[in-house]
């Protein structure tokens, strides 16, 4: 594999292409969303990947499995360089009162799952990411999906009541649910009958086709004033980088790196992200 320098960060946010010339590897995705793009729906809470207020969905094309994968991530600890060649979906991108609420947004509102509202965008995006991976999740999967989201107001019960409407062992034959005229009537968390919009994945943003054929084929390097970010695409490149920069910090989820930088004033001049390195088998 040959090395090449790509000094332009390319990714998509809510279906729109973003190109950043010479990005700063020290900036987080949350900073970029809020302060550069002006998208304030994603919140800054703890700043250390603990409260979930900054949750967004990250989608990438897996060139090995030949499919698009989705995951919920903490934008406050995710370096913006980490999302090169990927698609980010925020709460603004799935629906709004000005256009049309997504069923996840609608149900958390109708079941009184939002009080102060600060945690709500992150909780909505955690559920949205779960539904992208599993359109009919079990109640246990729903509960597990919120392990990383904190709410200081509701006690979680109305949130779970809202999102468990997406789940039933009997599916559409559930005794609490019936469809009439394209809507769902269901007993609400407060005992009233709510009219809910059905989940329709065809209305979601599509994964940008451009990202299936570009951006992840070659090694990229982003050079900031204090930090250089490498993303190799092969094991040989990764080993070569570690030999050349033995002090380099490897980062994948950045749960340690970002916390050390933010709260311990740690500084790592060279960062290597091996997220595009696929090792099928190692024979010792």
Please describe what this structure looks like.
There is one protein chain. 23% of the residues lie in helices and 20% in strands. The chain has 284 residues and is α/β, with parallel strands linked by helices. The chain has a five-stranded mixed beta sheet with strand order 2-1-5-3-4, covered by helices on one side. A four-stranded mixed beta sheet has the order 9-10-12-11, with no helix packed on it.
Keywords:
20% strand, 284 residues, 12 strands, five-stranded mixed beta sheet, alpha/beta, 8 helices
Question: Topology, pairings included?
Answer:
Blueprint: E1 8-13, E2 16-21, H1 29-36, E3 55-62, E4 67-74, E5 87-89, H2 103-110, H3 120-133, H4 139-145, H5 157-163, E6 177-180, E7 183-187, E8 193-196, H6 210-213, E9 220-223, E10 228-231, H7 235-244, E11 249-250, H8 257-264, E12 270-272
Parallel strand pairs: 1-5, 10-12, 11-12
Antiparallel strand pairs: 1-2, 3-4, 3-5, 6-7, 7-8, 9-10
Helix pairs in contact: 2-5
Radius of gyration, Cα only, in angstroms?
Answer: 21 Å
Low-confidence stretches: 1-5
Beta-strand content estimate: 15-25%
Q: What is the overall shape? A: globular
- Summing up helix and strand content along with how strands pair, one would put the structural category as alpha/beta
Mean pLDDT: 87
Helix content, binned percent: 10-25%
Query: What topology, given as strand order, has the largest sheet?
Result: 2-1-5-3-4
Our count of helices gives 8
Q: Profile the largest sheet.
A: 5 strands, mixed
DSSP strand tally: 12
Distance between the termini: 23 Å
């Amino acid at each position: 594999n040959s090395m090449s320098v790509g000094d332009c960060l390319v990714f998509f946010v809510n279906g729109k292409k973003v190109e950043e010339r010479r990005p700063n590897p020290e900036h987080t995705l949350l900073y970029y969303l809020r302060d550069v793009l002006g998208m304030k729906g994603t919140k800054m809470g703890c700043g250390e990947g603990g409260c979930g207020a900054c949750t967004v969905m990250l989608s990438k094309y897996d060139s090995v499995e030949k499919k698009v994968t989705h995951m919920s991530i903490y934008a406050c600890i995710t370096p913006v360089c980490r999302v090169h060649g990927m698609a980010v979906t925020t709460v603004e991108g799935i629906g709004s009162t000005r256009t049309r609420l997504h069923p996840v947004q609608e149900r958390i509102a109708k079941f009184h799952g939002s009080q102060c509202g600060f945690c709500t965008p992150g909780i909505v995006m955690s559920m949205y990411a779960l539904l992208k991976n599993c359109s009919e999740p079990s109640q246990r999967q729903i509960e597990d999906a919120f392990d990383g989201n904190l709410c200081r107001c509701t006690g979680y019960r109305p949130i779970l009541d809202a999102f468990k409407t997406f789940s039933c062992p009997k599916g559409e034959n559930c005794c609490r649910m019936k469809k009439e005229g394209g809507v769902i009537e269901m007993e609400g968390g407060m005992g009233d009958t709510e009219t809910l919009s059905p989940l329709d994945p065809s209305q979601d943003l599509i994964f940008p086709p451009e990202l299936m054929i570009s951006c992840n084929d070659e090694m990229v390097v982003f050079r900031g004033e204090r930090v250089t970010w490498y993303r190799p695409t092969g094991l040989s490149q990764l080993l070569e980088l570690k030999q050349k920069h033995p002090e380099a910090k490897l980062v994948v989820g950045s749960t340690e790196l970002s916390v050390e930088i933010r709260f311990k004033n740690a500084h790592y001049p060279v960062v290597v992200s091996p997220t595009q390195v696929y090792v099928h088998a190692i024979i010792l």
